[in-house]
């Protein structure tokens, strides 16, 4: 299967978890972004760990670092949860991003050397590293059939970012591609769950 097995897994696991995905889609406001997540409310609701996608969630595709507003949000999360309870779980963990986090947020860890989302391996590794149950981890992602699905498969909490950060000026092709993927994912979920 090689490098495309996670795409096939997205469709097969997505079909299996179609009802949960449809509920997530229907219950997430159209303009929901990461800044709408209140770290204090998450902590008081029992979330112990945040696993964050990068592209679309913390910045636009291909960006070397989070945006200033998401950096400020990360600082709030780090103060509340502790840096060791924040993880970056991205299918594209670039060296530049790792270096930026090492300099600005040295306690936030990248989960790597695991199968790509929607496989739950990254969330399982985060749970193991932090010593918490999967049910106390929230996966924040802008893709239904990758991070959100990985959370459902793992028994973690999915958080769907419906208004991702995009920059057509910086990455026209990538942003068009991923915007199209997001639309197709929503259509897929709506089609298989009438």
Structure description:
With 194 residues, this protein is α/β, with parallel strands linked by helices. It has one domain (2-192): Rossmann fold. The protein contains eight helices and five strands, in the order H-H-H-E-H-E-H-E-H-E-H-E-H. The chain has helices spanning 5-16, 18-27, 39-44, 68-81, 95-104, 121-130, 144-154, 172-192, and strands spanning 49-52, 86-88, 109-110, 137-141, 157-160. It has a five-stranded parallel beta sheet with strand order 3-2-1-4-5. Strand 2, helix 5 and strand 3 (109-110) form a beta-alpha-beta unit. Helix 2 packs across helix 8 (172-192). The model has no long low-confidence stretch (mean pLDDT 94).
Structural descriptors:
single chain, 194 residues, alpha/beta, 5-stranded parallel β-sheet, 8 helices
Quick structural gist:
The chain is an alpha/beta fold. The chain has helices at 5-16, 18-27, 39-44, 68-81, 95-104, 121-130, 144-154, 172-192, and strands at 49-52, 86-88, 109-110, 137-141, 157-160.
Oligomer: single chain
Give the strand order of the largest sheet, numbering strands 1, 2, ... along the chain. Answer: 3-2-1-4-5
- Strand fraction equals 5-15%
- In terms of structural class, how would the helical and strand content be classed? alpha/beta
Task: Tell me, rounded to a whole number, the average pLDDT.
Answer: 94
Q: Ends: how far apart?
A: 31 Å
Could you name the ranges where pLDDT drops below 50 across 5 or more consecutive residues?
none
The CATH architecture can be named as 3-Layer(aba) Sandwich
Q: Helical proportion?
A: 40-55%
CATH homologous group name? HAD superfamily/HAD-like
For this structure, the CATH topology is Rossmann fold
Indicate the radius of gyration in whole angstroms: 16 Å
| Helix count, DSSP H or I runs of 4 or more residues | 8
Give the SSE order as H and E letters: HHHEHEHEHEHEH
Please describe the biggest sheet, giving its number of strands, its sense, and whether it closes into a barrel: 5 strands, parallel
Q: How would you sum up the global shape?
A: globular
Q: Total number of β-strand segments?
A: 5
Compute the number of structural domains.
1
- Reading off the top of the CATH hierarchy, the class is best stated as Alpha Beta
């Amino acid at each position: 299967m090689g490098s495309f097995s996670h795409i096939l897994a997205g469709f097969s696991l997505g079909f299996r978890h179609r009802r949960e995905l449809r509920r997530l889609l229907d219950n997430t406001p159209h303009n929901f972004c990461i800044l709408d997540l209140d770290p204090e409310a998450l902590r008081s609701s029992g979330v112990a760990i945040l696993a964050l996608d990068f592209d679309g969630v913390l910045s636009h595709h291909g960006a070397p670092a989070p945006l200033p507003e998401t950096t400020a949000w990360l600082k709030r999360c780090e103060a509340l949860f502790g840096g060791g309870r924040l993880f970056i779980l991205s299918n594209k963990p670039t060296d530049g991003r790792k270096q930026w986090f090492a300099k600005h947020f040295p306690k936030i860890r990248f989960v790597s050397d695991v199968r790509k989302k929607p496989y739950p391996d990254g969330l399982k590794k985060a749970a193991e590293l932090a010593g918490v149950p999967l049910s106390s981890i929230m996966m924040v992602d802008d893709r239904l059939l990758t991070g959100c699905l990985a959370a459902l498969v793992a028994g973690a909490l999915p958080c769907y970012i419906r208004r991702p950060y995009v920059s057509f000026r910086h990455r026209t092709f990538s942003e068009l591609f991923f915007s199209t993927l997001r639309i197709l994912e929503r259509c897929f979920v709506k089609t298989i769950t009438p």
